[in-house]
Amino acid sequence: MTQPTASHFVNGAYLEDGQGAAIDSIFPATGAPVARVHSATQAVIEAALAAADAAQPAWAALTGTERGRILRRAADLIRQRNRELSILETMDTGKPLQETLVADATSGADALEYFGGIAASLGGEHLQLGADFVYTKREPLGVCVGIGAWNYPTQIACWKAAPALACGNTMVFKPSETTPLCALKLAEILHEAGAPPGVFNVVQGAGAVGAALIGDDRVAKVSLTGSVPTGRKVYGAAAAGLKHATLELGGKSPMIVFDDADLEDAVSGAILGNFYSTGQICSNGTRVFVHKRIKAAFLERLTARLAKAKIGDPLDETVSFGPMVSEAQLNIVLGYIASGIEEGARLITGGKRLDRPGYFLAPTVFAEVTDEMTIAREEIFGPVLSVLDFEDEAEVIARANATPYGLSAGVFTNDLRRGHRVIARLEAGTCWINSYNLTPVEAPFGGVKHSGIGRENGKAAIEHYSQLKTVYVGMGPVDAPF
Ligand code: NDP
Prior knowledge:
By secondary structure, the chain is α/β, with parallel strands linked by helices.
């Protein structure tokens, strides 16, 4: 695995400034440091913003075909280096290589290919008004700031960079300090693919570095993937500068399993929606409402299937369940597990840290969870599934919606009408019927209520990385009152 060679990537090259506070990248399976980077100093932040600002006009002046070709070349390079990039993602996050080989760099490549493909056909419209006419142009916003969470460092960087760059913006990206490495490889690859210096820059650091970037007058937009509390701060900072903002925030999503559902599919959905990436996924369906008539069968199949999870070294490709990203996150989740037990939920399986090095937690299932319990209300962001009982469709819809979050929702049923009827009433931005957690680049992704503002992916993302200019063209004499 070739690691990044310095902390930051600015103006087309790696950049180091040892004055910045040290940030260690820890391999979560062992707790051992694998790399050390330094937080961006004011000088690095200034260099990155100046580079992005200087590069933007020329980048926007290229044709969409030219920009798109560079993005598609980067997608090809990512696919060629998928294994190397996946190993880095696994070292950074602890997610099993079995997953990262198919879900991270590959998803990032999809985004670069998709937005590279549509870059050439971005445009406005023409409106004929008698002899006069109006045309609209789709223009870039300028310098965009991307700020990432730690659960999908490669994917998040690509999902932000690809539409931003396709539209003619430039970007300064700040990864989570927990997973600093992967975004640097994206910068390296974009540069190799032909992106001019300054088009995509990466700077390291914690929240203060993100805040400094958003507060700069040269920045037109921020796109954050993170928690609701951070979302509030970022949205506030963007509002102060009247800047555009896309917020991909947390969730407490419902997954509703009706008694006519295919039981194995519903169990598969619950596993994908609670234990993939060791449960560290924003869209997870962590409140699994199961119809009382099938609850016993559901729990039996779920526990039998969980026993087949292979927990261990995430670099071993046969391993299907890895450690949590950090000791801090593990402790947060253990705190939620203790509260579940204390508040009377029935622990079906798991609930304990595993006796081995690294931050391993057994996949955990609670049953008899009720709506007011802390584990049913707050985002846990770990491998903890809560089963809640229900009997009536209207009742379960009301309970599913009784949350400030609205990122995702899922319904398992073989009744076609019920599937669509229930989904239509669920307050969530990204929904699945008889499936869960699939997020292809073609489909817009994002939340409602406190789970977010704006959308990533699909054609919808273009709206959030560009603005319209309206041009009225007068073809006759100008009629003035005096
Ligand atoms: P955080 O909100 O803690 O951090 C997100 C990013 O914001 C980090 O890079 C962080 O820096 C940075 N940050 C923190 N404070 C500020 C600030 N004041 N100004 C600017 N930037 C700031 O989230 P986590 O990294 O812990 O990620 C987990 C959260 O992300 C969960 O709530 C999860 O649901 C959500 N998420 C949402 C997704 C979605 O698409 N909707 C997808 C994935 C995760 P640092 O941490 O380095 O200090």
